[in-house]
Amino acid sequence: MRPRRTPTGLRPLTRPSAAAVAAGCLLGVLSVVPGDPSPATAPAAAAAGETATVFYYTKTRNWAQYHLHYAPDGGAWTTVPGVRMESACADWVKATVDLGSAAGLQATFTDGSGTWDNNAGRNYDLGTGGITVKDGVVAHSDPCGDEGGTDPGSGGTATVYFATGTLGWTTANLHYQPAGGAWSAVPGVGMEAACTGWWKKEVDLGTATSMKAAFNNGNGVWDNNRGADYTLPTGLTTVDDGTVTTDATDPCAEETPDTQAPTAPTGVTARADGIAVVLTWEPSTDDRGVTRYQVTRTGGSRGKAVTDVGSTVLSDAGLEERTAYTYTVRAVDAAGNVSADSAPATATTGEKPAEPAAGRPLGTDPRKDPIYFVMTARFQDGDTSNNRGGSQHEKSGNAAASDPMFRGDFRGLVDKLDYIKGLGFSAVWITPVVLNRSDYDYHGYHGWDFYRVDPRLESTGASYQDLINAAHAKGMKIYQDVVYNHSSRWGAKGLFTPTVHGVRDAQWSWYYDEKQAGFEYDGLTVEPKSGKSYYNGDLWSTADPTGNTCLNWGKPTGGRSPEGYTLYNCQWPSPTSGMFPKALYHDCWIGNWEGEDSRSCWLHEDLADFNTENAQVQNYLIGAYHKYIDMGVDGFRVDTAVHIPRTTWNRRFLPAIQERVTQRHGAEAARHFFVFGEVAAFVNDKWNRGSVNHSAQFYTWKERAEYSADDERAALEMYAYEQQQGTGNQPTSRNAFLDGNAYHAPDHSRFSGMHVIDMRMHMNFSDASNAFHNGKDSDDSYNDATYNVVYVDSHDYGPNKSGERYAGGTDAWAENMSLMWTFRGIPTLYYGSEIEFQKGRKIDCGPSCPLSTTGRAYFGDHLAGEVKASDFSRVDSASGAVADTLAMPLARHVQRLNEIRRAVPALQTGQYSTEGIQGEMAFKRRYTSGGTDSFALVTVTHAATYTGVPNGTYVDAVTGDRRTVTDGKLTVAAPGKGNLRVYVLDGPGKIGTAGPYLR
Global pTM? Predict the structure, then answer.
């Protein structure tokens, strides 16, 4: 990010101090807020900005020579190729430019032979003083300078090493004051790159034996020990994440060469899935860490193949049919030492599935795509032959309502994609697709076979792959809901399934079925003898299983079921039954939802909690979700993300997603593969009950400390470390905010790879204004809040943790939508909300009431008929009930909101600000990239006054009203409840036609 120019150039006037800056993140990394100079800290006044010494980093380019081609502000460019730069110090060249009265310069760099660095076509905008340009990043320091300011005396030398690994800085300056002396001039002296993650500077302290010190990145971001400054003595001192170590060892001392190879991988297993093989293995160990694995495949007609992977799982697809393949794995460390081969593993492929060709993700910025969220099994029934009621069909009352829980399917969704497109949505979030197994599993959150799509959702010609391909053909994305935290209580096929005591006496023969050899549960196929699709004969045994650890297995407990039947020990899997191996599953009930046990305990009796810190579990899940990445899904909505440690996400699951998307679909697709997590927080606080580890924004950041190589220990260390740091010492970001009226390039260098659902706005959407003010209050704590997924209610909760679907009224719904579609973030609508479907109804009551009475009722009756959409928000024809649905006030409202948002880039990807604005829900947004510069002034419901905005012609996208601003001020009258105004600088005019609210 390039800082704004000040009248004295780009250097701040004073060093930041505790009195002059607001509290920042860990290490006191703060943005400068210039204040009055303090006698103890103020540097000498800067000169009148007549020179600039430009340092350029050479190690990346490695040119034979370097030229600086420049134009002083308001002046002419030098003659190509510019002035020759001279050697400054290791890896740096420099040129000093006389700027006269100019306050800065435009600059580019060249080798003099036709190769240029012109900042990707934008030129560099530089100020005065010492300036560094390193790999496209501009900072302010002298990387080769002397400390200066103090004559050598009889004192000693302080050698300072400063760690920037967790800060993401590309340069570092040391600003210091010898004891009894004066402070160096801001920003201090440039530190030298010493080794990866470390910067070094030697300071002659003269007669002093210590100094005060602070560090900065040259662009106004400081580490000043949380406003207290550091005290550093003579000798060698390290400063790492706020920890000062005196008389330290040199962190960059040459290490003994690494000649020790990693151990050979063990536990290599290969499992065929059609013409693909999933290979997993246990991690190797190494004295300095394994960096990658080499997998060698032999077999088939294509010869030997060697593949490098960063995780401990490989999905090898596109193989030959009915062919045996053998795999061996070797581990490689950073020094290139290679382990011995693992023991071989062999798998024989089957036949190529009769499925459509795998698709490719659309690979575009997810912020451009408003999301429509459907529960697939409850949306539209396209094929009645795959409808299933399950074991609770009668008890729930669904049978009496002729409403089987598995009713909607992919065929129905494909048939109604035009309905969703006609509303203007270009992304569809669907509930989990993996084969489920529970007593009431239509929603998809009780995974059983994670490698298989649930057959109750598929039909001939309407497989999951068909749905993905059909959506992509319409320019629509598919976001798949995924579960990494738990399986069903019956375990996970291919990992572990528990054996229970299912005595088939007169009492329990209705529940536990007789074992039928050769029959495999798939939720759809009816087992001939029992006549059930929910057959469970494979789950029970009357013999004590080998290795059973459940106490008194199979013996009566002395209790009775609600029906009066005898209960047996170990009849139901549970975390405390001893029926699950501790290595693969956790063995406790959750107690404190904001405590550490939320990571390591079961959430519910039918959700068996994976031990996600175990490599075997990680392999199983990574391999499973590789399958869906390969099919071309556009992103993952991550269920129960908060119940897995951030360290595990950042070390294992998120890198595996990125690696696989890159491998299969390319780097651009990986950059836009959208992962958004459910980090449930049901309070109105910025931080969830003060627990940073259980707050949504926490999951958007990389780690900022080193933890144990063991994932379970690392999780505990991270939890304790971050809780100790507290809420006031967390990372902050300006990525969502404008710099005045200017858009700036966001800094995603510390982004974890996971965006999140905006739980704070969700919890406060009982009132749009409340949601707005609570939402923006949290935005500095997300890595980039412009990616937040925003919704009013969902399949779980309404605002304020309500268990009912939102019933605030049509006007309030319209107001909420107007805010969501224009404020930062990605607007998301739960199916049916466009007609206030099931408003006020209980969202979920399990099998204790019919689904038709809940917020998860079947929606297809409202979609009957035909609908065709030629473009987003453009319905060409509609007949029957679906035409009536599309004519409803909120349906028309969201249709036009999508049309307006799609036409104004600032509303999709822009940063925002409320600076200089008077109004209840009023803000300005801007997005600038290449030839696009989109600037919009927005007010929802209420009047607003904007001051300090660019002069020019503004056109309201809602009414077409034109305003010419000549004094930086625009006043907008109140548009009314649910209505809004979107004044776009040099805008396209009125977008769409007036409706019930936008008029």
Answer: 0.76
